[in-house]
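Hello everyone,

My group is preparing for a crystallization screen and wants a predicted model to guide construct design. The compound we'll soak is flavin-adenine dinucleotide. Before spending weeks at the bench, it would help to have a computed complex in hand. I've included the protein sequence and the ligand's SMILES below. Output in structure-token form would be ideal because that's what our pipeline reads.
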Amino acid sequence: MEIDVERLKEIVGEKNVRDNIADLYVYGSDSSVHEANPSVVVRPETIEEVQEIVRYANAELIPVIARGAGSGASGHTVPIDGGIVMDLKRINRILAIRPRDILCKVEPGVVWDDLNRALQPYGLWFPSAPESGRIATIGGAIANNGSGVRAIKYGTMRDYVLGMKVVLANGDLVTLGADTRAQASGYQLDRLIVGSEGTLGIIVEATLLLRHLPKFRAMGMAKFNKLEDAGETISDIVASEVTPSLLELVDDIAITALNKTLNMNLPQVEAIVVYECDGRLKEAVNYDMETIKEVCEKHNAFGIEMGSDAKEMERIYSGRKKLFAALSRYREGFVCTSLADDMAVPSSKIAECARKIHEIGERNHVVMNAYGHCGIGLLHTKILMEATRKEQWENARRAVEEVYDYVRSVGGTTSGEHGIAISKAPSWKKEKADSLQMMKAIKMALDPNNILNPHKLMDAPDDWVTATKLRYPVEL
Amino acid sequence: MEFNRLRKWGNELNICIRCGYCYEHCPLYKVSNWEIDTPRGRLLLAYGLLTGEVEPSTYVAEKLFQCFYCKNCSKSCSAKVSPTDIFTDVRADLMESGFEVQGTTVRNAEKLCIACERCVSVCKSEALSMDMENMRVLVDKVKCKGCGVCVAECPVGAMSQKEGFGVSKKELSAKIESSLRSMNGIPKVIIFCCDWSIYPGLRLSRMELTGAENTSGIIVTVCAGRIDPGLILDTFYQGAWGMMIACCPLDECEHDGNYRAQERCALVERLLGVLGVEPQRLKLEHFATGEAQKLKNAVDSFVSEIASLGPI
Ligand SMILES: Cc1cc2nc3c(=O)[nH]c(=O)nc-3n(C[C@H](O)[C@H](O)[C@H](O)COP(=O)(O)OP(=O)(O)OC[C@H]3O[C@@H](n4cnc5c(N)ncnc54)[C@H](O)[C@@H]3O)c2cc1C
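Reply:
Good plan to model first. Here are the tokens for the complex, ready for your pipeline.
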């Protein structure tokens, strides 16, 4: 693959192209276990520049990998075959906030927290931004069909994207969707792009539905001596008439990690459930909080704490926000890897799934924990392991496979939030076995030269362990 | 090449989950917008040096010598990795191997230096020392945190920092000029915010400042101690009606830059008095991280005070 770097410099200007090894190495990583260097990094600033880069790449059969913040956890932006990494963080204007239409128009490089800061004066917010919203971009979250901790009440990305502008593999610019919530039949092409992980087109503008900021919020925390009790509590709350705005599980492994890393002084119990209700009326919010408390108590919860002032809520929730990284320090010599990290199961299966995860981890000599936005059936697990030991990767491979075999057996799905990319592709391909052909046909129709983020999703290698170089110093 | 100091951080580099949260508040990333200029980017370079995937080069060394040690990265890391400690050690290793780069560290122009030692006395990092034999100031580039306090202190302009990081006097002056130009029909007020103290709090607070009209005058820099009297006077000369310097609470500044700012403000206030300009047009205020509401109130009342004074 020959890349004409001078041509790219003509398009975006010399100072927006880098092809030295140091920059390439940095852009070859994300938050996953994978690593592979791109051939060149470009930073377009306009839609026209994006179009020209893609046109050039399509003519020369060069891979183009759209990149936001690079916070993807499964190797989303890791360019297996090299090629052009297109850093979209500079296309980052908030184009319009239209309170009367409860929508906004944004460019793909806008960071979620910046959007929410800009919406606040209007009394509006975007409730389903990912937890990584302090750096993650609009483009990245739409491409992943991500969501946040409040998905249980507010839904996921696909519920909010009304429309978008997309640059296709041939460089054409298309406008998908409309500025309306009601959009009837015809192929839902905007929805097709949501969750396509940069494989079908480059999102260059999005129209997002917004919500009013809730006037009241209250948060609670309940402790459990048995993980099963916590899981059953969550299942019962989901099945009840109350819709909390947040419902999270934190298991004992996570509690240990938080206490160790952040000195949080949490009680060393088997599980903690954190919940939140929000709304316009304080009385209604409190009523819902009480109902949830009763469900918790029915399942032997103790030490229930509730609070509604901001500081108190921050205290209750602060641990959960920092969990992912804190898990890195669970045990000396162990690291925290994003593998099998966000499966979703039907909500009645939370307890069973959490227990299975622990069992599978133990059986395979790695540590697996269970936490996450269980209100939507989503369980985060991380595999904690000694990443410099070869046999640990064998163990991890088996553990991942076993977890997903279980998830599929109960009608769950491989990824509820972070996406598939490379690490989760083998299991996902099993899950989607009978629709893979349909996906390949769509990909072929829209990107016949396979230039957009190739080797991801259905085209990813069958073994994630050897798909790329691993980011840890280990010889396989 | 041996990376003996860096090597001991190997495990920490594995513990980092590469989430990128560290770059939310990195002042260097804010200027360049390239990922190599984020803490994560520099940690990756360090890792690459260890594994041999990145060749040591002047370019890589230059990147690793770029850090203002504001430690916003360490504060935001839930895995409790401390990027700045790792950078310090990799700097020492690179120096030992003969890489001579400047990064964000200060340089002393021997020809201009009058050996007054004022720079040495204000450097809290003990990065500067006097070579008595040759009567010149030596800079320890491993210890220098790039706060710029010595640059502002030097009476003859012998101390300097490279441009391109948005903190040199020239760059700050240009920011002031463009801010003032954009303020039409409103009180022309410049607010300097220290990136170490108030700025992260400002961003995290999710609170709009007074209104779009006032935020255009907010200029973020690293350490109030780098604002010298000349820059303050220049701000007024360029047409500002008032200027506020927001710095860390006393004793909380890692560089004692707030004490220096205090001294310099006192000096300029006297000068303003002599020139017949109301000294209250210059104000120094202290804010800790997270005190966004206090900043908002202070800005509001300062702006209305200056509005009633009108232009100079
Ligand atoms: C600590 C941590 C917490 C996280 N929490 C959450 C969470 O709560 N919820 C959640 O959903 N995810 C979460 N994630 C995963 C990840 O942060 C999100 O999926 C995020 O939305 C990715 O955004 P990004 O800008 O980093 O995208 P990147 O990682 O840069 O890219 C992700 C994918 O999107 C594609 N892409 C990026 N921009 C475009 C574009 N403009 N057009 C087309 N394709 C594009 C890329 O090609 C890639 O396939 C978390 C990750 C970490 C490390």
